[in-house]
Amino acid sequence: MAMGQIRRRLSFAELVIQAYRIGKEYCIHVSGGDCPHIGCAVLAMPRASLRDSEKVSATSCVLNVAGHQDEYICRPLAEAVAKKENAVTVCTGGFHTDGITNEQIQELMDCIRQITEEEIECLI
Prior knowledge:
The chain is α+β, with helices and mostly antiparallel strands. About 25% of the residues lie in helices and about 40% in strands.
């Protein structure tokens, strides 16, 4: 079942994150940039925190397409949902912009950080 969607217009491209609930679990799809694609798949599984057994943490398994770095987008999203909902979560997709600069990469990662820290409930 479709859940939420977050769209962010960056200075150079649009980022789209969509979430779906499948039973008690979640599937997140990320796309954006000039050429959306599947660059990785991240499976995040909730578990008791190693520091505080009263809290939920997550362990992830990652499959990357050779040469892609989409894990840096998908992994934090999958882990944030897995922890918040105490549910198995898959995040897949990809973001590509030709000639992306270090400043644009930083802008994208800052956006992902903000979403995982402040807006994850908008997805689920």
